[in-house]
Amino acid sequence: MAASESRWAVLPVSDIELETKSSNILNQTSTQISNQTLDPNEPDPGSEPTQHPTSDRVQQQGHGHVHGQVHDKERQLQTLEQVQDQVQDQVQDQVQDKGKVAPKQDTQDDKGVTLLQKVVYLGCYMGFGPCLIMVNKHILRDLPFPHPITHTCFTTLITSLATWAGVYWFGWEMRSWKVVTAKFYMRNIMPIGFLQACTVVLGMSSYLYLTVAFIQMLKAFTPVMIVAFLHMFGIESPTMGILGTVGFISIGTLMSGYGEINFNVKGVTCMMLAQVSDAVRLVVMQYLLKNRRFGVVESLCYMTPAASFWVFVAAMIYEVPKMDNTTWEIFSSNYELWIISGLLGVGVNVMNSVVIKFTGSLTMKLMSTARAAALVLINVTLMAEVVTSIQCGGYIISLLGFMAYSYVREKKL
């Protein structure tokens, strides 16, 4: 991050806030002007006064009164246009003097991204997620390292260190550093970190019992959980369009589970609990953070260490006492896999932020759906995982339901 960009990192103000402030002032001014009434007994400056008390005088007064109204309206319009120009100039000057308007940064929007850069970003987005899943599956099942809590502790710690190193060495922007005090962190961030830790650990645990293809099918059920908990906590009531799409997702997920040959109750339970924990995390974030928006880097810097703390405590209680020398030999001889997993975790989050800037959230969700489907296909064709025809049909229904859900939610139907 360049030094010129970081100068305005403390008090960022969006264009929406500036436009709202200008609009409010203009509305107040136009209302005051439009509320002004004309006194019918007051002579108009543009009309010629007469001295004859005849019908001609009455007629002349009438014409003078009409012309006076027209002149007044013209003056009002001119005044409103002048006020509009003045207000826009004053608001820009006042806000810039206070240091609240950031100069336009070199963001990676659609105009600033070349075709080659788009191809690279999209390739990284489509590749990082599946690579992260396959690396985690290899560590937990193929090495084997059957300790998902400890594995999560290592990866989240590496992710935290890598993110803070990026902040220190590359000047990644931290806009909310004044807001995140020690009290704020303990009261608001630590509970979110606990739920995030539960989500990651439970999701990791499912790889010990289920195939990657079936896990991807179950992940399509996540919107159903989110809609249910948002409605349960009174944050958002689902529309008929949302209810219809989550109904399709539910039917598809049930078909996928029914057709699974290697169905494992413990694995499915872990995956369902991970989705519940993730949905509750989103609800708690809205409640505790009061809709405060953290960037991707800020979320990694603040919430990942909190999750690491809870995962470390759980690992020390439940897994570390059960480890033997063989476990530590596996870790020491394959430590690079944990580094790769942690760095891929950073890459996945950063690519989500970069890609959404020039594609939009709806397009990114559709790409995520295609990525999950491609991962299922790869594991079936290359990793010899078995998917039945009922599962395939159910997964197609779930994917169509998820795409419809993303569209309905984006368009607020």
Compact summary:
It contains 15 helices and no strands.
What does this structure look like?
With 413 residues, the chain is mostly helical. The chain is built from 15 helices and no strands. It starts with a helix and ends with a helix.
Keywords:
413 residues; mainly alpha; 74% helix; globular; disordered N terminus
Describe the SSE topology.
Blueprint (H helix, E strand, L loop, with lengths): L2 H4 L8 H20 L20 H43 L17 H28 L5 H23 L11 H25 L5 H8 L2 H11 L7 H19 L6 H24 L7 H23 L6 H9 L1 H25 L1 H21 L7 H23 L2
Helix pairs in contact: 2-3, 4-13, 4-14, 5-11, 5-13, 6-10, 6-11, 7-14, 8-10, 9-15, 13-14, 14-15
Radius of gyration: 30 Å
Number of strands: 0
Gross geometry: globular
In terms of DSSP E residues, the strand content is: under 5%
Task: Characterize the biggest β-sheet.
Answer: none
Question: What is the average per-residue confidence, as pLDDT, rounded to a whole number?
Answer: 76
What is the CA-CA span between the terminal residues? Answer: 39 Å
